[in-house]
UniProtKB/TrEMBL annotation:
Belongs to the binding-protein-dependent transport system permease family. LivHM subfamily. Keywords: Amino-acid transport, Cell inner membrane, Cell membrane, Membrane, Transmembrane, Transmembrane helix, Transport. This is Amino acid/amide ABC transporter membrane protein 1, HAAT family. The chain crosses the membrane at residues 12-35, 42-61, 73-96, 108-132, 152-174, 195-220, 232-250, 257-275, 281-303. GO terms for cellular component: plasma membrane. It is a multi-pass membrane protein. It is found in: Cell membrane. One of its GO terms (molecular function) is L-leucine transmembrane transporter activity. InterPro entries: ABC_transp_permease, BCAA_transport_permease.
Amino acid sequence: MESLFQNIMNALQWGSFYSLIALGYCLVYGVLRLINFAHGDIFMVGAFIAYFAATFLMGMYTDFSFGLPNHVVLLLTIPITMILTAGVGVTIERVAYRPLRNKGAHRLYVVITALMCGLILQHANLAVLGASRRSFPDLVERTVYTVGGVTFTNLRVMTILTAFLVFAGLYAIISKTRIGMAMRAISYDRFAIPLMGIPVTTIVVITFVMGSSLAGLAGLLYSMSYPVLEPYMGAMIGWKAFIAAVVGGIGDIRGAFVGGFLLGFLEIMVVAFFPSTFRDLIAFSILLLILSLKPTGIFGTAITTKI
C-alpha cells in the first residue's frame, strides 16, 4: 500500500504538468477549433524565460546582485514568466495565425503553420542559446515529508495545488464571466458572434494570453522539479499533453484537466509494474482503447452541423 500511495503522489505531480499544458491546447481549440501544435514549444520558451528571469533577479549572471531572497525571486519570476510567455503566444497568433484566419485559409494550412512555428521556436532557441543544457536555480528550499511511509516534498505539493487552483480559477472564468461567455459563444458559432457586437479578435487574443501563460507556468514548475533545460524539452511533453486533452475531450477544459492526470497515472503505474521501456507503449495503447470506445473523449460531445 505504501508503494501504491507513493506512485499516486508521483502521478499527481506528472499529471499536473500535463494538465496545465493541456488546458492551453483546450482553450485555443475551443475558441478557434485550432490545434496549436506550437504550444509544447511555448512551454519550452516559458521554461527558458523563467530561467533567465530567476538568474537575473538572483544576480547570477550580472555584475550586481539585487540581494533578493529566493522566495521573493520566485514570487517575481512567476508573473514575469507568465506575462512574457503570453506575449510569445500572442505574437505567434498575430504573425502566423491571424493572417490565415482573415483570408479564410483551410484548417490544414493553419495546422502546418502551427507545426512550423514550433520548429522555429526550437531552432531559434538552439541558434541563439546553443545546444548546451542549462541548470535551473533552486528557488525553493526542498523539505521532505514522510506521512504513512509516503515521501513527498514541498515542491511536489506546491505543483499539485497550483494545478488544481489554476483549473478552479479557469473554470470560474469560463463559466461565470462575460469573457468566458464570449469564448463559449465563439466556440458555438464564430460567424454569428460579430453580428452581436462581440470583438472576436480581442477574445482570440485573450484566449492566447490565457493559454500561453499557463504553458509558461507549467514550464516554470517543471523546471523547478526537473532542473535541466534544453531546446527540445517541449516537443514530447507537448505531444503527450495534446493526446491527454484529446482523450479527455479537447473541447472541454474538464476533459483536458482529467486527461492530463489520467496520462500521468498511466505512465507512473506502468513504470511501477513493468520496465520503463514499456511506459509509452502501454500507456498510449490504453488511451487508444479509450478513444476507440468513446471517440469524442471522456467529456467530449459529438458536434452536429445543421444544413
